[in-house]
Fold this sequence. Notes:
This protein is of the alpha+beta class. Helix content is 24%, strand content 40%. The chain has a four-stranded antiparallel sheet with strand order 1-2-3-4, with no helix packed on it. Strand 2 and strand 3 (35-46) form a beta hairpin. The longest helix has 21 residues, at 61-81. The protein is elongated, with a radius of gyration of 19 Å.
Amino acid sequence: MAYEKRDMSGAIFRNDKGDNDRRPDMKGWLKLGGVEYEVAGWTKHSERAGKYLSLKIQEPREQVAETINDLNREARQNEKSDPCPF
């Protein structure tokens, strides 16, 4: 049986950083409200908090590209239907 990604859950795994120290130490996914997000994590250290994990969450690139395409399409349609040239 294949692993099922359930809503309100996620997972992160060690990431091969290669030669690039800016790449995240961990990568994974998070599913909220039926939408799947990419998660990246960096292991950091501060004097006050000690060792912690800093996270970045973003929509997958495919979803972002679709959103941009939809916005561009909508803008072109609005330009065609707008009687004011400026």
